From TrEMBL:
It comes from the Bacteria. InterPro entries: Nitroreductase, Nitroreductase-like. Keywords: Oxidoreductase. Belongs to the nitroreductase family. Coiled coil: none annotated. GO terms for molecular function: oxidoreductase activity. Gene3D superfamilies: NADH Oxidase. Residues 9-181 form the Nitroreductase domain. This is Nitroreductase. It holds the Pfam family Nitroreductase.
Amino acid sequence: MTPDELLTTTRSVRRRLDLTRPVPIDLVRACLEIAIQAPSGSNRQAWQWLVVTDPDQRAALGELYRRAVDSYLESASAAGKLFQDEPGRAGVQERVGDSVAYLGPRMGQVPVLVVPCIQVAELPPGNQAGVWGSILPAAWSYMLAARSRGLGTAWTTLHLTYEEEAAEILGLPRDVRQAALIPTAYYTGSTFKPAARVPLDQVLHLDRWGSRD
């Protein structure tokens, strides 16, 4: 794939994750070696990575995710309930909602769960961009590297509804914060294409808010 193809066809994979095919740990390590080339604030490289393959650990995290998904699907902010009055978007949103519902009870069955973390003594009360900006680019790099190697991933954070319970399952010290939960597996099928997006000109502002030209 060209860089543009990789960047525009790395999608959240939920329904098409192969729950039966093992993922070699060396393949995950190769993706993480690329991930840690990402930038971090002041070059601290304070990221930490938990790669969860133990069936009991995966099941425990999966149960937290399932509980969070159940609550999410009941909420007004669930993907499938958004933009219902916009014919061009309603169908896409419903498919996203259906895929979240599908993964909900199956997260614990995914062969590898990757939890990107950031080590920080205390989250600042104000500007946290530097903290999360020091782990999120690396996590996205991991997902891109996985895609280029035939692995599917999805960016999920719903388990953080039960952040303390997840931290206990993972044995995290108090100065390590979770950024996401990334299911990782080989995917079924082979077709990935750019997603439908709101046109750039609807979200682009030049110099000041509201300026389009």
